[in-house]
């Protein structure tokens, strides 16, 4: 294989993409090289948001070029989404904390396995963790464009995951090729 490809792609560079175990070790190797202190402290302010410098550089120099989206347009839209969803997110986190505190208190008062399941369910309804099941519910797949069957939704989710994986691989390949071009020009 090396003889066919010559100096272009050594087999050792190609094998992680062919072997899932090799890909896992490659990802682990890259994660180990990350300087987590700098990731968390180096920030760039864009449209009122504090963005990790490494994420900002990745978006602007690797993800957006060729996408047809300008960096200013992307960050403005992203900041608008964050501002719109932040109050709702804060409310959901507060509700989660309230539920967790109630559950912690109940488990502290009732250590060990749950002895009275009916009392436990009543407690969960009381704190709002469980709701009353609706009586008349009709589930239909009359409009598959809206929901579709479980299989259709699962396939759409798989396609989204595959597309995300392809995007990540493309971004990594783009980064690697750019580094190679830089090395050749030196």
Structure description:
With 186 residues, the protein is mainly alpha-helical. The protein has a domain at 150-186. It contains eight helices and two strands, in the order H-H-H-H-E-E-H-H-H-H. The chain has helices at 2-5, 11-18, 20-33, 36-41, 53-63, 71-109, 117-127, 150-185; strands spanning 43-46, 49-52. It has a two-stranded antiparallel sheet with strand order 1-2. Strand 1 and strand 2 form a beta hairpin. Helix 2 (11-18) packs across helix 3 (20-33). The two termini are 28 Å apart.
Number of continuous helical runs: 8
User: How is the biggest beta sheet arranged?
Assistant: 2 strands, antiparallel
Distance between the termini: 28 Å
Widest beta sheet: strand line-up? 1-2
Mean pLDDT: 77
Quick structural summary:
This protein is mainly alpha-helical and 186 residues long. The protein is 69% helix and 4% strand.
List the helices and strands and how they pair.
Layout: H1 2-5, H2 11-18, H3 20-33, H4 36-41, E1 43-46, E2 49-52, H5 53-63, H6 71-109, H7 117-127, H8 150-185
Antiparallel strand pairs: 1-2
Helix pairs in contact: 2-3
From the structure above, extract its key features.
single chain, 186 residues, mainly alpha, two-stranded antiparallel ribbon, 2 strands, 4% strand, elongated, disordered N terminus
């Amino acid at each position: 294989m090396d003889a066919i490809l010559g100096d272009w792609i050594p087999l050792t560079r190609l094998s992680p993409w062919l072997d899932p175990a090799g890909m896992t070790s490659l990802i682990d190797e890259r994660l180990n090289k990350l300087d987590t202190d700098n990731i968390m402290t180096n920030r760039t302010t864009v449209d009122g948001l504090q963005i990790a410098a490494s994420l900002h550089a990745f978006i602007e120099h690797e993800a957006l070029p060729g996408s047809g989206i300008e960096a200013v347009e992307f960050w403005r839209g992203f900041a608008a989404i964050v501002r719109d969803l932040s109050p709702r997110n804060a409310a959901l986190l507060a509700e989660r904390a309230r539920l967790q505190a109630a559950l912690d208190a109940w488990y502290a008062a009732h250590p060990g396995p749950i002895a009275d399941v009916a009392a436990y369910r009543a407690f969960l309804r009381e704190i709002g963790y469980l709701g009353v099941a609706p009586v008349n519910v009709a589930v239909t797949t009359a409009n598959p464009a809206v929901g579709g069957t479980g299989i259709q939704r699962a396939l759409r989710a798989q396609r989204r995951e595959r597309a995300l994986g392809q995007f990540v691989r493309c971004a990594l390949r783009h980064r690697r090729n750019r580094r190679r071009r830089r090395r050749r020009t030196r």
